[in-house]
UniProtKB/TrEMBL annotation:
SUPFAM superfamilies xref list: Metallo-dependent phosphatases (SSF56300)
Xref: InterPro entries: Ap4A_hydrolase (IPR050126), Calcineurin-like_PHP (IPR004843), Metallo-depent_PP-like (IPR029052), Ser/Thr-sp_prot-phosphatase (IPR006186)
Source organism superkingdom: Bacteria
Protein's recorded name: Serine/threonine protein phosphatase
Species per Swiss-Prot/TrEMBL record: Sphingomonas citri
Length: 265
């Protein structure tokens, strides 16, 4: 499987759903995880972020810098690549079409969090604006995002951003499906050979637990609820941090942008 990683050592895993620039919720949830971990028996632990740490929310820059540093300091802190990181990399590496699409898909808020001027986020930016935006974000950040793994396997669980293509062997999955797949995966009752732990598709009422998959994206950006799942020796449990929700109308705008971008991408 492209970008896979086999986690042989850790006994306890905390997987965190889509953050979308909500540094406040990430910080609160990490404190909750620390307390939960301390209350349990000692264990080697891994933190896994399921992708889409950027876009839409107000603090993508601070969140990215923090995650980059954590991943460098601790090999058991893993950030998976989401479709928003994928778009951001394509955009800032010189694809003008991708740059314009990314701006309308949440990238505008990301650049503003880096202190971008309004000129860089206009409706029809040119290659000059794209290059200035890439310089502002920095090559180190762009290259780090490009290297993010697509999957992480731990025992009978597979961690991935969007899901897998039903009926396709895990080792033959393609990046587009791992990053973007929707109903074909969500509606499937197939046994994938593992329990797929994913984000990407919002379940506002809480984690979506089915026989073959667990969805952890509770819409942190627009609901103010960020969810994590703990996993240890077959036991699962859920933790949550809450905060302010997005402005009124954000949900409808996000849904419209998602449909348009998926169709084009």
């Amino acid at each position: 499987m492209t970008g896979g990683d086999h986690a042989n050592g850790p006994e306890r895993i905390y997987a965190i759903g889509d953050l979308h620039g909500r540094f406040d919720l990430f910080r609160a949830l990490m404190r909750t995880i620390e307390r939960d971990h301390a209350a349990r028996t000692p264990a080697v632990t891994r933190i896994v972020l399921l992708g889409d740490i950027v876009d839409r929310g107000p603090d993508s820059a601070r969140l990215v810098r923090g995650c980059l540093r954590l991943s460098q300091l601790n090999p058991r802190f893993t950030v998976l690549r989401g479709n928003h990181e994928e778009m951001m990399v394509h955009a800032l590496r010189g694809d003008l079409w991708a740059y314009r699409a990314w701006l309308d898909f949440g990238g505008r808020e990301t650049l503003l969090s880096w202190g971008a001027s309004p000129a860089l986020t206009d409706d029809m930016p040119g290659i000059r604006e794209l290059r200035a935006a890439a310089q502002l974000v920095g090559r180190d950040v762009i290259d780090w995002m490009a290297r993010l793994p697509l999957t992480l396997r731990h025992e009978d669980h597979l961690f991935v951003h969007a899901g897998v293509r039903p009926g396709v062997a895990l080792e033959r999955q393609v990046p587009r499906d791992l990053l973007w797949i929707g109903e074909e995966f969500l509606d499937s009752e197939d046994d994938h050979g593992v329990t797929v732990v994913h984000g990407h598709t919002i379940a506002e009422d809480g984690p979506e637990v089915r026989d073959n998959r667990i969805g952890l994206d509770t819409g942190a950006y627009r609901t103010g609820r960020l969810t994590a799942m703990g996993l240890e020796r077959g036991e699962r449990w859920f933790l949550q941090a809450t905060g302010a929700a997005a402005p009124v109308g954000a949900e409808r705008r996000e849904a419209d942008e998602h449909r348009q971008t998926v169709a084009a991408w």
